[in-house]
Amino acid sequence: MTRIVVVGGGAGGLELATRLGRKLGKKGKANIVLVDKNRTHLWKPLLHEVATGSLDAGIDALSYRSHAANHGFEFQLGEVADVNREDQLVTLKPMVEEGKEILPARQLNYDYLVMAIGSVSNDFNTKGVKDHCIFLDNPSRADLFHHRMLNRFLQYSQNDEAEKGEKVRVAIVGAGATGVELSAELHNALDQLRAYGVPNLSNSSLAVTLVEAGEKILPALPVRISSAAHSELQKMGVDVRTNTMVTEATEEGLTTKEGELIKADLMVWAAGIKCPDFMKELGGLETNRINQLVVRPTLQTSRDSNIYAIGDCASCAMGEEGFVPPRAQSAHQMASLVFKNILRQMEEKPLLDFEYKDHGSLVSLSRYSTVGSLMGNLMQGSMMIEGRIARVMYISLYRMHQIALHGYMKTGLMMLVGRINQVLRPKLKLH
């Protein structure tokens, strides 16, 4: 029986494994295997909410194993060590926890392999960043930031720092969507902590500095949207620094190219992405300078027609327009095409080429505002939206991901439970 292995359970990988499981796995037409080094899935654009406590990953995350059992595919917990293209084998590393081997190294055979491992933060080899900054690459790192944030606010509330005019200082490097949304959520977290009785907190207790090396925040979005978000952040009190290059991170804070020290108690690095370093030499496949797999228009890798790549780990050219951007909507669209192409390849039909459709971008500034553009290149220019309408559209992006995984009925029930939990649960995770 045909065996399809999907490596990476992010937005694209999990949606693809789910669709293949429903179409082929449940009907006994193929064995579908999803591999991921984590036990649960959380939509990556929500990690900034986990970091501040607006979202509880323990409740909102999806279990890969239970989802696999319900949708006709198999889940393997593990991390890829190598790919043998000649024998069509994927080798998984041994799983070690607390110094003990939980699972041995394993090999999975495949007829079709889909790499969907996503990306990690790119520190550009900046001195001290790995030691002193937190990368919001996964829920565990977001939880680490949340834990340190709560401890810092508790420390601040019990000392006489407020009387001395001190602040809880957070520095965020990179003013893409993650950096901008985290800046806003931090102010929401401060308001909630005050509401839940943490003493000695006021509007002046938090100092957030957002550092961007480029000329504007949200560099991938149109100028008018970037300007609107910039204005909203300044209204909240965020210190937005553009054209500012960070050269070093230390325990005290960030050092800029001009020699200025931006003092910080907590530092987050969200400036750029790359694929994990092991991708450089994976099975002799072609990669670019940030370790992405180079793919053909069909999303097959350039050197192997039985291996596909989707999402952030795929370098897919769009002609003169550059490359497909690393966004959740890109991963979703790529997953849809690879689903069709694998079926067509199994039936020996001609494959389809990928055409990226930009449906616009939305950035949530917590409960304060939402700004963005709709339609993208589907109409001349784009339509700017903000406020309540933009907030509804922003939430709907996550609902579309849930519908792809669970269907309309179960997603509707999840929305209902979410409404109930807004009444029953604290608005901020306090532990």
Note the main attributes of this structure.
431 residues, alpha/beta, 6-stranded mixed sheet, 5-stranded parallel sheet, globular, flavoprotein, NADH dehydrogenase, FAD, FAD/NAD-bd_sf
Query: pLDDT under 50 segments (min length 5)?
Result: 375-380
**Sheet with most strands:** 6 strands, mixed
Number of helices: 11
Helix share, percent? 25-40%
Radius of gyration in whole Å, from Cα?
22 Å
Shape: globular
Mean pLDDT: 91
Count every beta strand, where a strand is a DSSP E run of 2 or more residues: 28
Which strand order does the major sheet show? 5-2-1-11-24-23
Beta-strand share of residues: 25-35%
Look at the helices and sheets and give the structural class. alpha/beta
How far apart the termini lie comes to: 48 Å
Word description of this protein:
With 431 residues, the chain is α/β, with parallel strands linked by helices. The protein contains eleven helices and 28 strands. The chain has helices at residues 11-25, 47-52, 57-60, 64-71, 129-132, 139-158, 177-195, 223-236, 328-346, 388-406, 408-424; strands at 2-7, 30-36, 40-41, 62-63, 74-77, 80-84, 89-92, 95-97, 100-103, 106-109, 112-115, 120-121, 134-135, 168-173, 206-211, 239-241, 246-249, 253-256, 261-263, 266-269, 273-274, 293-294, 300-301, 304-309, 314-315, 360-365, 369-374, 383-386. The strands form nine sheets. The protein has a six-stranded mixed β-sheet with strand order 5-2-1-11-24-23. Strands 13-20-14-15-16 form a five-stranded parallel β-sheet. Strands 6-7-10 form a three-stranded antiparallel β-sheet, with no helix packed on it. β23 and β24 form a beta hairpin. The longest helix has 20 residues, at 139-158. Mean pLDDT is 91; it is low at 375-380.
